[in-house]
Amino acid sequence: MFEGIIPALVTPFDEELKVDYRGLERNIEFLEKHVDAFVPAGTTGEAATLSYQEHIEVVKHVAEISKLPVIGGAGSNSTREAVFLAKEVEKAGAEGAMLVTPYYNKPNAEGLYLHYKTVAESVSIPIIIYNVPSRTACNITPDVVEKLAEIDNIVGIKEASGNLRQVCEIIERTPEDFILLSGDDFLTLPILCLGGKGVISVAANVAPELMKKLYSYFVNGELEKAREVHYKLMPLYSALFIDTNPIPVKKALELMGMPAGKPRPPLVELSKEKTEKLKEVLKKLGLI
Known about the structure:
Elements: E1 4-7, H1 21-32, H2 52-65, E2 71-73, H3 79-91, E3 96-100, H4 109-122, E4 127-131, H5 133-136, H6 142-148, E5 154-159, H7 164-173, E6 179-182, H8 188-194, E7 198-201, H9 208-219, H10 223-239, H11 247-255, H12 272-284
Parallel strand pairs: 1-7, 2-3, 3-4, 4-5, 5-6
């Protein structure tokens, strides 16, 4: 259920920086025919600046209108808050929950294990661990993942450490049905080659058809064609991280005439200079 191309959805805002639910519907309609599931209220969805009420409403709205599985963002650096969000995401109708490793606190291995175990025991839906040390200052190591994979409803990990050795170790040390998803568009194809099952993607918000082509070519054994698409997408991968995510992807959607809006402070709009570079990439791919 949680394999393939899975966009980490942007949360569009109106001019007053309120959630644009009609815009969210438009984006889902644009994406739905090319992708395999959705992740609302994650990093790309600006969960850090959504209120709890907004966070839950965004997940609920996506779950109500989507024909595809929904993995609701539910992470926190407080175990108590993560339990609350996971329960609310389940009540909102999500088929799964994605929980980022606790940020700022820097828990040790035992603290990480107990954090995820506690949340997993509080809900019945599947849980995806989200490892992104560049944002959290906390890396969940393969030995902890191996231990967590023994818990029935902890079914996978979004791996955004950028460490392919760690990816290999996780795949090697966890059961065959434990899902490893790339958390980095650049590494989607390499991680698929190592045994990963897909990607939770920023780029899929703007180029879902190309991302799906890459994945389909790979699963059909057409590796050379998958490689061609990978290199075609490389400039987009770079452009979407020319500034802090989701600043560039929101600007890309705006340039494509899709709902996005400005990011909420403390994030700011993409600069004019960087916008021109992004525009060049989008033109070359025929996206604008």
